Amino acid sequence: MTQLELDEAKARELEEKFDPEMRFRPLGSLAGRIVGGALVALSLFHYYTAGFGLLSEMLHRGIHLAFVLGLVFLVFPATPRGYEAPPASRFMTPLGIPLLDWVLFAAALAAVLHVPLIPLDDLAFRVGNPTSTDVALGAILIVLLIEANRRTIGWPLPLIAISFMAYALFGPQMPGIFVHPGATVSQLVNHLYLTSQGIYGVALGVVATYVFHFVLFGVFATRIGLGQLFLDCAAWVAGRYAGGPAKVSIFGSALFGMISGSSVANTVTVGSLTIPMMVRLGYKKHFAAAVESTASTGGQITPPILGAAAFLMIEFLNLPYTTIILASIIPAFMHFFGVFMQVHFEAKRDGLRGLRPDEMPDLKAAFKRDWPTVIPLIGLIYMLFAGYTPYLAAFTGITLAVLVGLFNPMRRMRPIEIVEGLRDGAKYALAVGVASACVGIVVGVVTLTGVGFKISFIVTSFAADMAQASAAVLPAWVMGLQTLTLLFTLILTAIVCVLMGCGIPTTATYIIMVTVAAPALGLLGVEPIVAHFFVFYYGVLADITPPVAIAAYAAAGMAGADPFKTGNTAFRLALGKALVPFVFVFSPSILLVAKGFNWPDFATAFAGCVIGITFLSAAFSAYLLVPARLWERLVLAVASILLIAPEIWSSIAGLVLAAPVILAQLARRRAASMAA
């Protein structure tokens, strides 16, 4: 095995070790076959309906949730002790699984399928007039969802859902603006259980209709060797230059993100190769881990999948898929560019070498071996841009991936590996499936009580007060009151997004923030697609922001580095991505498809971002052309903010401010070269 050869079995083992959503209960032989059969059946159900026609909306979502929720109780144990060897099969542990979990499995099936199996005419009559059975089963489903999410992703999302339900029930006791008439338990359960605005709402629908299929596609694309080809291409493009493995990490994660929307999956798959190489070439362990985790979060903002956000945006914004993808191109580039520049400056400062020729892959041999693996991705992208539905595109991609796996003589996939792919694809989708249903509880409470608009009013009012205080000390020509109000609203929204995203899957964070925070931006005239991208980007940032930087901690575990130090470094590396969302709010042209797009505005914003991110990277890395002094770093940091601000005059001011630093750096580099 060469140093750049991907061991997929090892990658899956690392993923289960470091990602709580992928950590599963060990099962005995018979239990493993039963659960595995159910997982394969779930994948086949989605594969068949994607290609040959979806069921009615409620029935399709119900079957999906019944499988997902029921299987969670068989696959994820209730306590950490459940990750030990399975107990012997006894009365209280049939097939090595606790009897309680079998009961919860059966209860999940009954509670979930009750609503989809009600005739539509009868269901329409019962909305607002639930029977006692409806209320009982609805309450059971809510409790099961809370417990399922606790098992898969921990307490953050369940606590948010519980808090929102408490708000709905105790409305008259709420303080100030948050007072509302309140709802009875029956009314709350009715809204969350029997309508399409709660558990069976858009969030569950998108996962059941789109996200599951792309998770499955990513599994098969990786197993037929597409991930290996991406890594070989990345090594060939960037490996020979200073700090080569770190740059391979960035390019590899960018390419790998096209087929995997999971930050942790990207981190452990690409990082299993790049982190040891970075450490061997001289990078500090925490920096190597931070580079990989930061680059890997880009998988959630990389077209064509964007994690799952692209499909959620299609539903929320009612925009074509191509519009969402075009809008995502430049921001994704800015993220990877920002990480690349910091890595480059660190490598130049510390004199780190690139890969030697004997450490580089043979790209010609790689393409000769793996070129067929590109066919499924090309087919999927073609179907998406040709206007076909995303699930039919995923069906095409999965089908082509299986065919390539069966008939590619250089990397043939055995039938048992296809079954394992179907099993693992379903297993990887369990956590996001129950999270989307739990998010439906939050969305349902928002639509029932109107609390989203109250939160938006509070945020904008507080931002307006901060703006007035700032306007009293700032000259009017620097920034007007309206712009200051928007700026402070963005800052507050960004902070809430990052905090809300701690420990919650990005898909769930995005839906909550769109429901709760995005309306605040709408009140200030921000275009919907811009507001959605803003909250989405900051939700993704939570994966590398302490104290719950799940991707950074996974990378730290692989590198043997300090987790908190890794998280702090990863956040620093991602500051380019943290600043870019402010750019596309103040200059929407950078999203390419926003209203009022024009090329001069785009060129100004793009050039300012590129130069500004370069200067900011130099300031943090203490290197531009030669090692930077403290005053140079401070000047570059201020100049970068002026350049990133999407105004021609601020950009000119930033360049003028940075000019002395550039001249001083040039002079020192010239002196150093003459001395040599």
UniProtKB/TrEMBL annotation:
GO molecular function per UniProt: transmembrane transporter activity
Cellular component annotations (GO), alphabetically ordered: plasma membrane
Protein topology in the membrane: Multi-pass membrane protein
Protein location: Cell inner membrane
This protein's record includes keyword Transferase: no
Keywords recorded for this protein, A-Z: Cell inner membrane, Cell membrane, Membrane, Transmembrane, Transmembrane helix, Transport
Domain of life: Bacteria
Location of the TRAP C4-dicarboxylate transport system permease DctM subunit domain: 141-594
NCBIfam families: TRAP_fused (TIGR02123)
Protein name: C4-dicarboxylate ABC transporter permease
Native species: Prosthecodimorpha hirschii
